[in-house]
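Record type: monomer structure entry
Structure origin: computed from sequence
Chain ID: A
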Amino acid sequence: MSLRGPLAAIFAIFGVISTARAGEPPPPRPPIGPSAMRPPREGLDSRPIGPNQVRIINISDQQLFIAYSDGTSSWKNVIISSGLAADIQCLQCGDEVTVAFHNGKENVSVKVKKGSAYSLGWSSQQSAWVLTPGQ
């Protein structure tokens, strides 16, 4: 009696199962960034921004950390809770303040205009934290 027949049938069944699984989409991956974006809490956009200030609004669902140059040789660290804003002030800076943060891939620094508001949140397109003008 030859085993060639039963073994061939078993391998054929596994081949059909493997082919069927290959056509199925892979299971979805969990997102890398925050699970949800939040709008800023009420009243953040109604406060005036001074001419030497920059407002950074955290639109994510988690606490974020930034640093900014104070116009001298030092940097100031700022913690911004979810849905809140931080007003940073730099009297020694020109028209712009340098803001630094980790975007999820690397440390980045961005120049922002004084007297303006920016949102800090997760970009699905870039898979990174981004600082964008406006509220």
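Annotation 1: The longest strand covers residues 116-123.
Annotation 2: The radius of gyration is 26 Å.
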